[in-house]
Amino acid sequence: MDERDLLAERFEAHRPRMRAVAYRMLGSLSEADDAVQEAWLRLSRSDADAVDNLGAWLTTVVARISLNMLRSRDVRREQPFAAHIPEPIVDSADGTDPEHEALLADSVGLALLVVLETLSPAERLAFVLHDMFGVPFDEIAAIVDRSPDAARQLASRARRRVRAGNAEPDADLEAQREVVEAFVAASREGDFRRLLAVLDPDVVLRADFGPDAPIPFREVRGAEEVASQAEMYSRIGLELHPVLVNGTPGFVAMRDGERFSVGGFTIRAGRIVAMDILADPDRLSRLDLTALDTR
Predict the structure, then answer these.
(1) From CA 290, how far away is CA 295, in angstroms rounded?
(2) Which residue blocks in the chain are alpha helix, DSSP H?
(3) Which of 134, 89, 82, 84 is nearest to 107 (CA)?
(4) Could you say which of 39, 190, 200, 228 is the most buried, measured as most Cβ atoms within 10 Å of its Cβ?
(5) Percent of the chain topping pLDDT 70
(6) Domain check: are 152 and 13 in the same one?
(7) Which pLDDT score is estimated for 47?
(8) Positions of the chain with pLDDT under 70
(9) Where residue 195 sits, what CATH number does that domain have?
(10) Neighbours of 53 (CB within 10 A)
C-alpha cells in the first residue's frame, strides 16, 4: 500500500464523524458529502505527516468548509436565515439504516435542524461543534475568528434557541409511534376531537412548499389550527406510508402515485409539539426513498 492509499484509508476512518458534522451544519446530505469531499482534497494537498491529531484536524477543516458554504448560501438568499425545512433522512418504519445511525446520533431530529436553520452560521457552528461534538471553545474561536468567550456566547445563544424550539423528542420510540399512529388515524377519519387529544396546545406546524409555490413556507400554531389543517388534507386522497424521519416516526405521503410530502413529528410528554413537512416537489424528487415501497 503506497502513501496515498494509506492516507485514504485513514481519511475513511474519520468519514462518519465528518459527515455527521457537515449534515448538522448544512441540513443537506448532498452538501455534507460535498464538504467531506473538499476536506479530502485539502488533506491530499497538505503535509499529513505534520498533523498530530488527524481526527481533530479533519473536524476543523470540514467545519470551516461547511461554515463557508452556509455563508455563501445566506448571501444568495433574499432573506438570510429564512424559514426552511432541511433535507430529511428517511428510513423504513422497521428501523434506521446503519449508515444513518452515525448521522442521527444525539437525536438529530428534523425539528432540531429547522431550529438550526434560524441561527447565524457562526452560532450554528459553535453549537454543533461544542454541544454535539465536544470541541473546545478555543478551537471554535479560531474557526469563527472570535475570542473563546465570544465563541462561548455564540453557543449559549444557539442553545437557548434550541431549547425554546421544543426540538428534543421523547426517548421512547414505540410511544412516539403510537402517538403518530393515533394522529394519522384521526386525520384519515376527520375526527377533530381525537386530533386535539394528541396535539399539544402550542403545537407548531411548519410546511415548506418550495420557492416556486405561491406561499413558499407556512407556519401554523395552536392545536385547533393544526387540527383544521389535518382535516383539510384528509379530503384530498393522500396515501400515508409510515417511515422513520431522522430516526423518529413520520410519514411519506403519496397522491396518485406521486410523492406529495414527507412529514416528521416531535413528541413531548405524549403529545405532538411540532410537525415539519417538506412538500417542495423538486427536493422531494431528489430524496432517497429506495428502502421504501412508495414509488
Answers:
(1) 9
(2) 3-26, 29-44, 54-76, 98-104, 110-117, 121-127, 133, 137-144, 148-164, 173-189, 192-198, 223-233, 281-286
(3) 89
(4) 39
(5) 94
(6) yes
(7) 86
(8) 1, 74-83, 106-107, 291-295
(9) 3.10.450.50
(10) 9
